[in-house]
Write a structure and sequence with these properties.
The complex is a heterodimer. Chain A is mainly alpha-helical. Chain A has helices at about 1-5, 10-30, 45-50, 55-85, 90-100, 110-120, 125-130, 145-170, 170-180, 185-215, 215-220, 230-240, 245-275; strands at about 30-35, 40-45. The radius of gyration of chain A is 23 Å and the shape is globular. In chain B, the strands form four sheets. In chain B, strands 6-7-8-3-9-10 form a six-stranded mixed sheet, with helices on both faces. Chain B has a five-stranded antiparallel sheet with strand order 13-12-11-14-20. The radius of gyration of chain B is 24 Å and the shape is elongated. Classes of the chains: A mainly alpha, B alpha+beta.
Chain lengths: ~280, ~350
């Protein structure tokens, strides 16, 4: 087995060059000022202090709001669908799940452009309404369009883990609960929900992370007014050129993600212990 | 004794498959009743209809005199012990057993008393905090029983609960279940395909096949006086021979007249004769009513299973003696050993 260790060397090199070093660089940028001037490295926390300003705090809050909203809608709509699929005949389940994931086979950018086409003031939906004699509805560049785009995009990532959890559940437990006097609602709350919780947590964290760090969908469907954390980072690096600030924000985002993952792992472990 | 459950002309179809073809059965209070039959005979379906997990396609089911066909499972005063136990994996032993009582929102102290008493009854007194998924099959079995009984149902349904246990544990549990039933004093409806199990535990045995009831009776009745070929063949081993009932107390088969104890058949009626392997005796050819030759001897532990080839057929005999293959022998039996049945269209 020892000589297999040598086979991991290319992977380690790859990780160091393309993951470790960039991360270190981001960290260095975050804690210094002076951009790319390597010779004048002033270590400072001013980048992080800058985040405390009102405008930037608003960005964080808006990102969290949109994150929660998107996650909530995905959960509310995704759980029932996952449940229905899990109760379908064994043979059709794989096909139904494939149906859920097929949209992800198409490039996200293309899908988002498609939504723009659908929702524009002179887009497909409004044209159809016009033919029916109904006034056009303004949908683009609103909360509605951004959330719609994010929910449609992230829904499969909520449905799949929940479905996996539900599929593993022994359905005779439902009969057992009802035999012991639990009505359908009580059965759902005490048995089904509890047993599918690992899947629910997985889905929730996954969707939440993707929602708060997304920037393409808010940009295309929301226009300039939708500045989320992702957009902020993008603008700092691409347009404004303040890599230090951009890096600081990235680190904060990374910290949020790590905390969320840690929480998810803890919940998962608790479930495993309880089982 | 009062009737607690009445099944009237119960039918059940799954698609074009007719699983129950008209079940009529009265079940009494405090009795240990077993539904016995081969796989696919409809016994589990009948049980599930009583539990409320299936709706009958036709017929009625009365509980204490009221039709409960439309009453959902969670409202019925019956509880079930499932074949796979179906314990809730995310709850420990105590929480599993207390589940039904928690649903009823019973007082916590009262729940504790009842649960602990029930755990003691099934021999799991200190198991409350244990993880159910780490228990042995026998222990899970007992948690399932406790979980069902703690709700003090009027009827307990058991769906082949001992199927997954090893032979010794199975026998021990049979005795325990019977003990519990007598102690608690409620009706047990037990489903199994193991006829020995049925005979050991039951007050009443209901033999089923292909969606119909073949015979209802006590274990002794079912064994000694099977009413048709199916019951005779399913319960215990038997030799079933076509014969003629010459007159009361005299039956003729294999070219020999035999005195027997059955009567009430028309003269010279074609009948089926049942001879149990343990009732036939192997003797010297000149002492036997029938003669033949030993063709096979199989050791079964408790006895040898010996096949004797006679003029018309092979007889199966259980005996503790060993016989050499090829030995010419005779077979004798007493009138009591012969059981005559009507020839069924079976």
């Amino acid at each position: 087995m020892k000589h297999f260790r040598k086979l991991t060397i290319p992977y380690i090199v790859w990780c160091v060059i393309f993951i470790l070093i960039p991360l270190l660089l981001i960290a260095i940028y975050a804690f210094t000022t002076g951009g790319n001037e390597v010779r004048t490295l002033n270590f400072t926390l001013s980048n992080f202090a800058k985040i405390n300003e009102a405008t930037y705090i608003k960005v964080f809050i808006k990102s969290l709001e949109l994150g929660f909203l998107t996650t909530g809608i995905c959960l509310a709509a995704g759980y029932p669908l996952a449940y229905i699929i899990s109760r379908a005949p064994e043979e059709s389940q794989d096909m139904l799940i494939m149906g859920v994931t097929i949209p992800t086979w198409i490039n996200m950018l293309l899908r988002t452009y498609a939504w723009m086409n659908l929702l524009s003031d002179n887009g497909i939906i409004n044209t159809l309404l016009g033919m029916l004699g109904i006034d056009p509805v303004h949908m683009m560049y609103t909360n509605f369009s951004v959330i719609l785009g994010m929910v449609c995009n992230f829904m499969p990532f909520m449905i799949i883990p929940i479905h996996t959890s539900l599929r593993k559940m022994d359905h005779s437990l439902i009969e057992a609960a009802m035999d012991l006097g639990a009505n359908p609602f009580q059965t759902f709350r005490r048995i089904i929900l509890k047993l599918s919780m690992p899947g629910v947590i997985n889905g929730v964290v996954l969707v939440f992370l993707m929602a708060i760090s997304s920037f393409v969908i808010p940009k295309l469907l929301g226009g300039g007014q939708f500045v989320l954390i992702g957009n902020l980072i993008e603008s700092q690096f691409i347009s404004i050129g303040d890599w230090n600030f951009g890096s600081a924000i990235s680190l904060i985002l990374a910290a949020i993600i790590l905390i969320a993952l840690r929480l998810m792992k803890k919940m998962d472990l608790k479930e495993v212990e309880e089982n | 004794m009062d009737k607690i459950i009445e099944l009237k002309n119960l039918t059940k179809n799954f698609g074009n498959q007719q699983v129950l073809r008209g079940i009529n059965l009265d079940i009494y209070q405090n009795e240990f009743l077993t539904l016995l039959g081969p796989s696919g005979c409809g016994k589990t379906t009948t049980l599930r209809i009583i539990a409320g997990f299936e709706e009958p396609s036709g017929g009625q089911i009365l509980f204490d005199g009221t039709d409960i066909s439309k009453v959902p499972a969670y409202k019925r005063e019956v509880n079930t012990v499932f074949q796979k136990y179906s314990l809730f994996p995310h709850m420990n032993v105590y929480e599993n057993v207390a589940f039904g009582l928690n649903i009823k929102k019973m007082d916590k102290a009262l729940i504790e008393t009842r649960v602990n008493r029930m755990l003691k009854l099934v021999g799991l007194a200190d198991f409350g905090a244990r993880d159910v998924t780490l228990l042995s099959g026998g222990q899970q079995q007992r948690v399932a029983i406790a979980r069902a009984l703690v709700n003090e149902p009027k009827v307990l349904l058991l769906d082949e609960p001992l199927g997954a246990l090893d032979a010794k544990l199975r026998k021990d549990m049979q005795v325990e279940l019977k003990k519990i039933q007598k102690e608690i004093g409620i009706t047990f409806i037990f489903v199994t395909h193991d006829q020995e199990e049925a005979l050991t535990m039951s007050d009443t045995v209901v033999v089923m096949n292909e969606g119909t009831i073949q015979q209802i009776g006590t274990p002794i009745d079912i064994y000694n006086e099977p009413e048709n070929r199916f019951v005779a063949g399913f319960i215990g081993e038997s030799n079933i021979i076509d014969g003629i009932m010459k007159k009361d107390l005299l039956v003729h088969f294999d070219d020999v007249d035999f005195e027997c104890v059955d009567k009430g058949f028309p003269e010279n009626e074609p009948v089926e004769v049942v001879l149990r392997p343990e009732d036939l005796d192997i003797v010297k050819p000149e002492d036997g009513k029938l003669t033949g030759e030993i063709t096979s001897v199989t050791f079964k532990g408790v006895h040898y299973n010996v096949m004797v080839k006679t003029k018309y057929r092979d007889y199966r005999i259980n005996t503790t003696d060993y016989w050499e293959i090829g030995t010419p022998v005779g077979l004798t039996l007493t009138p009591d050993d012969i059981h005559v049945m009507w020839k069924t269209q079976y």
